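Appendix C: a fully annotated inverse folding record. The material below is reproduced so that readers can follow the format used throughout the book. The structure is listed first as tokens, followed by the designed sequence.
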């Protein structure tokens, strides 16, 4: 199964960053990066493979670069 998501930053504070993406079922989903805890969480709905791929890309990019990117593409 292929995974694809266009991820966009919608909010950033000193403590968290919120990203939105369109879920496979056509519903907008939100991933939250908690900067203090260095973790991601899903803001509503069921955690599924697409969410895990988006959360992983957000966390790895932030951890590597130290900056929350404005946009990401997740494809596998």
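Designed amino acids, in order:
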């Amino acid at each position: 199964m292929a995974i694809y998501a266009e991820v966009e930053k919608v909010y950033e504070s000193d403590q968290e960053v919120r990203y939105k993406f369109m879920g496979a079922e056509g519903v907008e989903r939100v991933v939250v990066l908690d900067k203090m805890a260095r973790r991601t969480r899903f803001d509503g709905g069921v955690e599924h493979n697409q969410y895990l791929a988006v959360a992983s890309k957000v966390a790895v990019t932030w951890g590597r670069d130290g900056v929350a990117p404005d946009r990401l593409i997740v494809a596998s």
